[in-house]
Amino acid sequence: MDVCELSASELRRALGARECTVVEATEAHLARIARTAEVNAVVSLDAERALARAAELDRRGPSAASPLFGLPVGIKDTHDTAGLRTTYGSIRHAEHVPASDALHVRRMREAGAVILGKTNVPEYAAGSHSVNRVFGATRNPYDLGRSAGGSSGGAAAALAARQVALADGSDMGGSLRNPASFCNVVGLRPSPGVVPLAGAANALTPLTTAGPMGRTVDDVALLLSVIGRPDPGTPVAAPVLGETGRAVPLAGLRVAWAPTLGGEIPVEPEVLDVLGRTVALLAEHGAIVEEASPALAGAAEAFLTLRAAEFEAEWGEALAADPEDFGERIAWNIRLGRGLSGHDVMRAQEHQTALMREAARFFTEHDLLLAPVSTVAPFPVEWDYPRTIAGEPQEHYLDWMRAATVVTMLGVPALSLPAGFTDSGLPVGLQMIAAHGADARLLGAARTVEALTGWAAHAPRLP
Questions:
Q1: pLDDT tens profile 123-138
Q2: Of these residues, 44, 128, 175, 191, which one is catalytic?
Q3: Where is the Amidase domain (predicted)?
Q4: Residue 295 CB-density burial (10 A; 0-12 exposed, 13-18 middle, 19+ buried)
């Protein structure tokens, strides 16, 4: 049995049945990381403590109270891990070692996970291409000359390369969804509030959320069951409604297909070809599919304003004091925020409120919204971002991410599901979107589509 090829759910069952030990599973994944080091997905490896933790878990044994018992995991390098270097992808924090875990990381430990190391990110998680001056670029396991996406690119690549069984991530403008699409894994941006963001530094906003990543929908649901619980210190936390382990039949499901999100995004034809085949499969199995989109005019611009305001508030003073500590694209984003007025920010917040109301209306008429996750297939790893898409120029590093950023503004759960490969063998993900709070239903529908397509089982050819 090659434990690295098992999904997290399968490995958890094997560990529970004592078909392998936690030490064996940990050693196998550490060996896999070493064998596929060129992917550069897991950084700040914590092998010694991981093996000690594995031995401790073997002595303790599995229990129902440990749903992640023995599972080797990667933690995004923007999420604090007690005693383990956390750089946020920034040279300013290259040797930073937090004293405590982020809330959801602590929950993962308590549930029995074995943390192998941190997964690579762009600087301060800014953008959908995981490269920074501390660790360099993460490469796509399906083509090492291509990007793994971002900002949870190290997490997605580590999952695809079978280096970890589960990974966490976060998503403001697509950081769980885009890398999942690029790496043929599953990434869920939960409804805001489902995964609490504790701590004074985390603003209670519908823009950013932590979330789960895995190779299958079952794996993502498993991790969500651990990290997606209310926290008494987070007053806007909201529990998942419904059972996340139940498949949702397609027959009679009202599905909206928005290939360009109502004309808001350009999409490369090779991406639409792959997605069109998957959408047709839903219709063949009884879904009622029509082309429709929420009204999204101005969503990308409002997102840009709110993001820039957050960046300036977080790093404006640091940039002014030490400009060399920041890369070009995050410095641009911070400076964009510096030029905003309070009026600009309030108007953007008002626009997001209107978009969230539009989403609530739209999902009274549709059960699911389907759209591209990324408007291009994985691009060359040397690029900062694609400069044109379907012949349309992309003005800045956020422009090409609009398929995800405009959905963020709706305040709803969104999932990237493996949907197939281009003719050149590059992964493409389908963005599946549901009403706020309908995370369980979204997972159930994704589970059904996953079983129909079988794409999640396609692994990259690596040593």
A1: 999 999 999 999 999 9
A2: 175
A3: 24-443
A4: middle
Give catalytic status of residue 130 as yes or no: no
Collapsing DSSP states into helix, strand and coil, what is residue 108?
helix
State the pLDDT confidence band at 240, using cuts at 50, 70 and 90: confident
Q: What share of the chain is helix, strand, coil (3-state, %, to 5)?
A: 40, 15, 45
For 312-318, which contacts have Cβ atoms below 8 Å and span 24 or more sequence positions? 312/336, 312/337, 312/338, 312/340, 313/337, 315/124, 318/92
Q: Exposed, middle or buried by CB within 10 Å (0-12, 13-18, 19+), for 82?
A: middle
pTM given for the model = 0.97
Q: Does 163 reside within a domain?
A: yes
Q: Tell me if 227 is assigned to some domain.
A: yes
Q: Which amino acid is at 135?
A: F
Closest of 417, 46, 381 to residue 213, by C-alpha: 417
Candidates 408, 400, 366; CA nearest to 189 is 408
Rounded to whole angstroms, how far apart are CA atoms 104 and 60? 22
Question: Which of the 8 DSSP states describes residue 37?
Answer: G
Which tokens in the block code for residue 74?
């990667």
Which residues does 49 contact at the CB level (< 8 Å), separation at least 6?
83, 84, 115
Reading the block at residue 431, the tokens are: 């963005």
Q: Is 63 a catalytic residue?
A: no
- pLDDT at position 202 over 60: no
Structural domain boundaries enclosing 442: 3-457
Catalytic residue among 44, 147, 151, 152: 151
Look up residue 363 and give its amino acid: F
Provide the number of structural domains found in the chain.
1
Per-residue pLDDT, 450: 98
Query: What single DSSP character describes residue 420?
Result: E
Amino acid at 427: P
Q: What is the CATH number of the domain that holds 27?
A: 3.90.1300.10
Reply yes or no on whether 175 is catalytic.
Answer: yes
The amino acid at 138? T
Task: From the candidates 9, 66, 76, 416, give the one annotated as an active-site residue.
Answer: 76
Q: Is residue 463 part of a domain?
A: no
| 390, part of any domain | yes
Q: Which pLDDT does position 200 carry in this prediction?
A: 47
